[in-house]
Each structure stands twice: as structure tokens, then as C-alpha cells.
Amino acid sequence: MTEERPEIALDLRAAARYLVENPVVLDEQEPSMFRLIRRHGQRLDQWFTQRFGYRLQQSADTVRLFKSTFVARHRPLRTVGYQSRDFSQREYTMLALALASVAAGPNVISLRDLIHKIRAAAADAGTALSETPSERRALVTALKWMIDGGLCSEMHDRVDSYASDGSADAVLKVRPDRVALLPLPVLSRSETPEQLLDRSVQGHSPRAKMRSMLLEEPVVYRSDLSEDEWSELRRRLGEEAGIFDEMFGLRIEARAEGVAAIDPDNGLTDSRFPAAGTVAQAALLLIDRLVDHDQNPVGNSTVVGVVADLVREHRRHWSQVADDPERLTKEAVELLVNHRLAERTLDELLLLPAAWRYGADVRVEQMSLL
User: Fold this and answer.
1) CB–CB of 274/284 below 8 Å?
2) Nearest CA to 290 among 277, 281, 303, 274?
3) 51: helix, coil or strand?
4) What is the pLDDT of residue 9?
5) Predicted pLDDT at 190
6) How much is the pLDDT for 365?
7) Does an H or E element contain 117, and which?
8) Least confident span in 32-46, 53-67, 295-309, 351-365
9) Which DSSP symbol is given to 195?
């Protein structure tokens, strides 16, 4: 490791952390961070390229970190707004069609003309579109995501009105140069999800792949790697710990079952756990109950029953989602799966080793309640 002056080391770490969480950085939205990244752009590019197989591309007002080494299992797009949620499949479709329709320009387009181009792109792709309100809402969701991401802006009127009025119009200013920066290069050579996942690791060293997994996944289990890869990772843990500390301030935690990069500040994540809120609390308490269960995996009906018991105990502290124990179970289990604390099949839930670090001395009164 090379020694940096303390202030430079802190700036580099702040910039690297921000880029990992925000792979597209825009001058007009985050001017101070944009300038910081540009100031240290050469060093950051060297770090990410040599250590992770990533690529940092910079322009006058846009920075893009291409994370092309490893595709995380669960990193969905989120809708814009206070009650943000994962994109639906239809919203993904509308976003892909909208991006394809503006990638080559023009720089200014009316909403009506854009819709015509989207319908033409859908026809070319063999996708049927309709004029239903749900379809219009899906398109508005996609366009609002593009606007929030600096890919386009509203020059006249707003796209929101199209959700309830199929005759509504607006004028958008488009940034085709930024649209072109969105797809990973491997996407253009992949025709199926399986090809995308396979080709994402091709051409990169095993060490870059393992580092990317550690950075992008909540935990890397021994079963995720070949025996040779696992042995290599364990042998080089000291070196990996130095890299993750220097770049991100993360601490490497190793167990017999797996390895995780832990953030002492709990900030470098798009989904925190444990966390406040009914679903997160139910998930944490569910772990506490299941680690003492005499079976693992546990049948789905048993899991629903455990959550129903938790609702009876803690309903006065929880939000309306607790009125439907099956829905609460589904959302709590999904949270555990996304954090690689559990795996589910059609009929069972299997707790994974990392879940045991949350399974002792859980007290709901110590949590922030909604």
C-alpha cells in the first residue's frame, strides 16, 4: 500500500465509497462530489481498474463507474419518490423501450413523439403495448426515473399528467450521451440473463471477481466459490483487508462458512439491516425465533405461523402491513433473502450461516418503531 497524506487519503476514500453506491455522478446534482472525483480521477480509475476490473469514464459533467466484473444477485432499480419501491417487470420494459427510443436523439422531443417511438421499438421487439392506465403509469415511472437520473429534463409541462390522461403532452430535453453510458458493455453481447451473468466475469482475473463479490454482495459464502478460489481468498485475506480499508473503510470479517465486508459506519449500502420499520423488525425477530427452531430449513406454513405470533405480540408498535401476516411474511423473507441471510424454495425457508449473528438477544423495545 502506498502512503497518502491524511487529507488526500480521506478524499479518495470518500470518492470511492460514493462511486460504489452511485455509479453515475452528475455535476448539476452533486457538484462538490463531482469535483472531488474529477480531482482524483486518475488515481480512482487506477484503483478500480487494477483491483476490481471496473472502468471509470469521465466527461465534462458526468462520471460513470462501469462495474463490469460481477453482477450482484439483487440490485433492482427503485422508483422515484418518498415511497420508493423496486421496479416492476413492466416498468423495466417501458424503461428499456424509452432508453432505446432516445439513445440516438433527438435532443428535444415531445412526449407524444416519444410514445410513438416507444411503440415502434416495442413492435420491433415483439412486445405488445396498450393504452391502459396501468401501462401509462408504468411509462411515467420509467420517465421519472430518467429525469431523476439526469438523462432528460422537462422543458414544458410534466410527464406525470400522462398517467391519468392519455392525451397529455410534454416537452423533454434528452441527454443521449448519458443514455449511452448506462448499459454495461457486456449487455450488448448478451441475449439471455444467463449469458449476461456468464460474460460479466469473462476477461477478468479471479481475484478481481472475488473482490467484486465481496464489495457488491452482503456476504460471500464458501459455496459461492470453487475450492481453489476459496483457498486463494483465505490465503490473501490480509491483502484484501488492506485494500478494502484503504478504499472504503470496510472491515473484512471471515468465518469458516464465508467472508463479508463490514462497514462500521453502516452507510455503504442500498438496503440496511437491521433497520427501523415493521418489515425489518419482523425479519429480525423471525431470525431470532428460527435460529432456535429444531429444524432448518423450515416449512413455509411454520414461517407464516411464527410471523403471526410476532404480530400478536408486537402489533401495537407496527404499521398496517402487520394486518396481513402472509404479506408481512413475504416481505420479511424477501428482505432476508436479499441480504443473503436466508434462501427460499417453493415450500421451505433455509437460514444461512450469516443469520446467526443476528439471532441472539433481540429486543423489540430497543428498536426504532413506526
Assistant:
1) yes
2) 303
3) helix
4) 95
5) 66
6) 36
7) helix 111-125
8) 351-365
9) H
